[in-house]
Design goal:
Blueprint: H1 3-12, H2 16-29, H3 31-38, E1 48-52, H4 58-66, E2 71-76, H5 79-88, H6 90-94, E3 98-102, E4 115-121, H7 130-140, E5 141-151, H8 160-170, H9 177-186, E6 191-197, E7 202-208
Parallel strand pairs: 1-2, 1-4, 2-3, 4-5
Antiparallel strand pairs: 5-7, 6-7
Protein backbone atom coordinates (compact mmCIF):
# COMPACT_ATOMS: atom_id res chain seq x y z
CA UNK A 1 0.00 0.00 0.00
CA UNK A 2 1.39 3.40 -0.98
CA UNK A 3 1.84 6.25 1.49
CA UNK A 4 -0.89 8.19 -0.34
CA UNK A 5 -3.32 5.29 0.08
CA UNK A 6 -2.50 5.09 3.79
CA UNK A 7 -3.20 8.80 4.22
CA UNK A 8 -6.43 8.59 2.26
CA UNK A 9 -7.63 5.70 4.40
CA UNK A 10 -6.98 7.78 7.52
CA UNK A 11 -9.56 10.28 6.22
CA UNK A 12 -12.26 7.67 6.69
CA UNK A 13 -11.64 7.02 10.38
CA UNK A 14 -8.50 8.71 11.71
CA UNK A 15 -6.65 6.66 14.31
CA UNK A 16 -3.33 6.62 16.12
CA UNK A 17 -0.60 9.25 15.80
CA UNK A 18 -1.04 9.56 12.03
CA UNK A 19 -4.78 10.03 12.48
CA UNK A 20 -4.13 12.90 14.88
CA UNK A 21 -1.90 14.54 12.26
CA UNK A 22 -4.63 14.11 9.64
CA UNK A 23 -7.19 15.65 12.01
CA UNK A 24 -5.00 18.71 12.57
CA UNK A 25 -4.53 19.07 8.82
CA UNK A 26 -8.31 18.92 8.34
CA UNK A 27 -8.70 21.78 10.81
CA UNK A 28 -6.60 23.99 8.58
CA UNK A 29 -7.34 22.74 5.06
CA UNK A 30 -11.13 22.59 5.26
CA UNK A 31 -11.90 26.01 6.72
CA UNK A 32 -12.50 27.71 3.37
CA UNK A 33 -14.88 24.90 2.40
CA UNK A 34 -16.78 25.18 5.71
CA UNK A 35 -17.24 28.92 5.37
CA UNK A 36 -18.43 28.63 1.77
CA UNK A 37 -21.01 26.05 2.82
CA UNK A 38 -22.19 28.06 5.81
CA UNK A 39 -22.80 31.10 3.59
CA UNK A 40 -25.84 29.26 2.24
CA UNK A 41 -27.78 29.18 5.50
CA UNK A 42 -28.83 31.71 8.13
CA UNK A 43 -28.18 30.73 11.72
CA UNK A 44 -30.85 32.15 13.97
CA UNK A 45 -29.67 33.51 17.36
CA UNK A 46 -29.61 30.82 20.03
CA UNK A 47 -29.64 27.89 17.58
CA UNK A 48 -28.98 24.35 18.72
CA UNK A 49 -26.57 22.81 16.20
CA UNK A 50 -25.28 19.30 15.59
CA UNK A 51 -21.99 18.69 13.74
CA UNK A 52 -21.78 15.10 12.47
CA UNK A 53 -18.28 13.75 11.91
CA UNK A 54 -16.36 16.79 13.10
CA UNK A 55 -12.89 15.36 12.39
CA UNK A 56 -10.23 17.52 14.03
CA UNK A 57 -12.86 19.57 15.85
CA UNK A 58 -12.23 23.05 14.48
CA UNK A 59 -15.59 23.09 12.70
CA UNK A 60 -17.23 23.03 16.13
CA UNK A 61 -15.33 26.18 17.03
CA UNK A 62 -16.38 27.86 13.78
CA UNK A 63 -20.03 26.98 14.39
CA UNK A 64 -19.85 28.27 17.96
CA UNK A 65 -18.35 31.58 16.80
CA UNK A 66 -21.27 32.02 14.40
CA UNK A 67 -23.76 31.00 17.08
CA UNK A 68 -22.55 32.72 20.30
CA UNK A 69 -25.96 32.63 22.00
CA UNK A 70 -26.62 28.97 21.20
CA UNK A 71 -24.98 25.60 21.70
CA UNK A 72 -23.08 23.25 19.40
CA UNK A 73 -23.00 19.48 19.80
CA UNK A 74 -20.59 17.26 17.91
CA UNK A 75 -20.44 13.52 17.30
CA UNK A 76 -17.69 11.50 15.65
CA UNK A 77 -17.06 7.77 15.64
CA UNK A 78 -13.27 8.08 15.80
CA UNK A 79 -11.73 7.84 19.29
CA UNK A 80 -8.75 9.88 18.13
CA UNK A 81 -10.92 12.70 16.74
CA UNK A 82 -13.04 12.89 19.89
CA UNK A 83 -9.86 13.32 21.96
CA UNK A 84 -8.45 15.91 19.57
CA UNK A 85 -11.71 17.86 19.41
CA UNK A 86 -11.88 17.98 23.21
CA UNK A 87 -8.35 19.37 23.33
CA UNK A 88 -8.98 21.92 20.57
CA UNK A 89 -12.22 23.13 22.16
CA UNK A 90 -11.41 22.80 25.86
CA UNK A 91 -12.38 26.36 26.82
CA UNK A 92 -15.66 26.26 24.89
CA UNK A 93 -16.49 22.85 26.37
CA UNK A 94 -15.73 24.11 29.88
CA UNK A 95 -17.97 27.13 29.28
CA UNK A 96 -20.85 24.90 28.15
CA UNK A 97 -21.01 26.24 24.60
CA UNK A 98 -19.84 22.99 22.98
CA UNK A 99 -20.41 19.34 23.84
CA UNK A 100 -18.35 16.60 22.17
CA UNK A 101 -19.57 13.01 22.08
CA UNK A 102 -18.53 9.78 20.44
CA UNK A 103 -21.32 8.56 18.20
CA UNK A 104 -22.42 7.43 14.78
CA UNK A 105 -24.73 8.95 12.20
CA UNK A 106 -26.52 5.60 12.09
CA UNK A 107 -27.72 6.01 15.69
CA UNK A 108 -27.50 9.65 16.78
CA UNK A 109 -27.57 9.85 20.60
CA UNK A 110 -30.22 12.58 20.83
CA UNK A 111 -34.00 12.71 21.04
CA UNK A 112 -36.40 13.61 18.26
CA UNK A 113 -36.83 17.34 17.47
CA UNK A 114 -33.60 18.43 19.20
CA UNK A 115 -31.71 20.51 16.63
CA UNK A 116 -32.35 23.62 14.58
CA UNK A 117 -29.45 22.80 12.27
CA UNK A 118 -27.40 19.67 11.55
CA UNK A 119 -24.13 19.96 9.61
CA UNK A 120 -21.96 17.36 7.92
CA UNK A 121 -18.68 18.60 6.48
CA UNK A 122 -16.61 16.22 4.36
CA UNK A 123 -18.04 13.08 5.92
CA UNK A 124 -21.14 11.67 4.21
CA UNK A 125 -18.96 9.77 1.68
CA UNK A 126 -18.28 7.26 4.44
CA UNK A 127 -21.77 6.78 5.87
CA UNK A 128 -23.01 3.19 5.68
CA UNK A 129 -26.47 3.93 4.23
CA UNK A 130 -26.94 7.45 2.92
CA UNK A 131 -30.75 7.50 2.75
CA UNK A 132 -31.19 5.88 6.16
CA UNK A 133 -28.59 8.18 7.66
CA UNK A 134 -30.28 11.25 6.16
CA UNK A 135 -33.48 9.89 7.72
CA UNK A 136 -31.83 9.50 11.13
CA UNK A 137 -30.70 13.13 11.02
CA UNK A 138 -34.23 14.14 9.97
CA UNK A 139 -35.52 12.49 13.16
CA UNK A 140 -33.36 14.73 15.36
CA UNK A 141 -34.26 18.00 13.59
CA UNK A 142 -36.99 20.30 14.77
CA UNK A 143 -39.81 21.07 12.37
CA UNK A 144 -38.39 23.35 9.65
CA UNK A 145 -34.89 22.42 10.85
CA UNK A 146 -32.07 22.46 8.32
CA UNK A 147 -29.53 19.86 7.23
CA UNK A 148 -26.36 21.31 5.68
CA UNK A 149 -24.04 18.89 3.85
CA UNK A 150 -20.78 20.26 2.42
CA UNK A 151 -18.38 18.15 0.35
CA UNK A 152 -15.29 18.82 -1.74
CA UNK A 153 -15.97 15.78 -3.93
CA UNK A 154 -19.01 14.88 -6.03
CA UNK A 155 -19.59 12.97 -9.26
CA UNK A 156 -18.39 15.23 -12.07
CA UNK A 157 -16.59 14.17 -15.30
CA UNK A 158 -13.80 16.73 -14.85
CA UNK A 159 -12.65 14.95 -11.67
CA UNK A 160 -13.41 11.36 -12.68
CA UNK A 161 -9.83 10.02 -12.43
CA UNK A 162 -9.01 11.73 -9.14
CA UNK A 163 -12.27 10.80 -7.48
CA UNK A 164 -12.03 7.20 -8.67
CA UNK A 165 -8.63 6.96 -6.99
CA UNK A 166 -10.07 8.32 -3.77
CA UNK A 167 -12.93 5.83 -3.87
CA UNK A 168 -10.60 2.93 -4.59
CA UNK A 169 -8.38 3.80 -1.62
CA UNK A 170 -11.04 4.66 0.95
CA UNK A 171 -14.29 3.01 -0.12
CA UNK A 172 -15.92 6.44 -0.21
CA UNK A 173 -19.13 6.89 -2.20
CA UNK A 174 -20.08 10.07 -4.01
CA UNK A 175 -22.99 10.98 -6.27
CA UNK A 176 -24.32 13.40 -8.84
CA UNK A 177 -26.20 16.46 -7.54
CA UNK A 178 -29.57 15.12 -8.66
CA UNK A 179 -28.91 11.81 -6.95
CA UNK A 180 -28.24 13.62 -3.67
CA UNK A 181 -31.45 15.60 -4.14
CA UNK A 182 -33.46 12.43 -4.71
CA UNK A 183 -31.95 10.74 -1.65
CA UNK A 184 -32.86 13.71 0.54
CA UNK A 185 -36.45 13.63 -0.66
CA UNK A 186 -36.60 9.87 -0.10
CA UNK A 187 -35.40 10.48 3.47
CA UNK A 188 -38.37 12.76 4.10
CA UNK A 189 -37.06 16.31 3.64
CA UNK A 190 -39.54 18.82 2.28
CA UNK A 191 -37.00 20.71 0.17
CA UNK A 192 -33.48 20.14 -1.12
CA UNK A 193 -31.39 22.98 -2.53
CA UNK A 194 -28.00 22.27 -4.12
CA UNK A 195 -25.14 24.57 -5.13
CA UNK A 196 -21.87 23.67 -6.84
CA UNK A 197 -18.48 25.10 -7.69
CA UNK A 198 -17.69 22.72 -10.58
CA UNK A 199 -14.13 23.93 -11.10
CA UNK A 200 -13.32 22.99 -7.47
CA UNK A 201 -15.66 19.97 -7.34
CA UNK A 202 -17.34 21.50 -4.28
CA UNK A 203 -21.00 20.91 -3.49
CA UNK A 204 -23.39 22.05 -0.76
CA UNK A 205 -26.82 20.61 0.02
CA UNK A 206 -29.40 22.42 2.12
CA UNK A 207 -32.44 20.36 3.07
CA UNK A 208 -35.39 21.41 5.24
CA UNK A 209 -37.46 19.11 7.41
Amino acid sequence: MSELDKRLQQCRRPSGPEGKVIGKEMNIRHQQLWMWGLEHIELMPGSTILDIGFGGGMSLQVLSSLNPEGKVYGIDYSDEMVKLARDVNKELIDSGKIQVLQGSVSCIPFKNFTFDVACAFETCYFWPDLIENFREIHRTLKNEGILLVVNEVYDHPQFKDRNSRYAQSTGMKYYKPEEYRNYLYQAGYSSAEIHEIPEKNWIVMIAEK
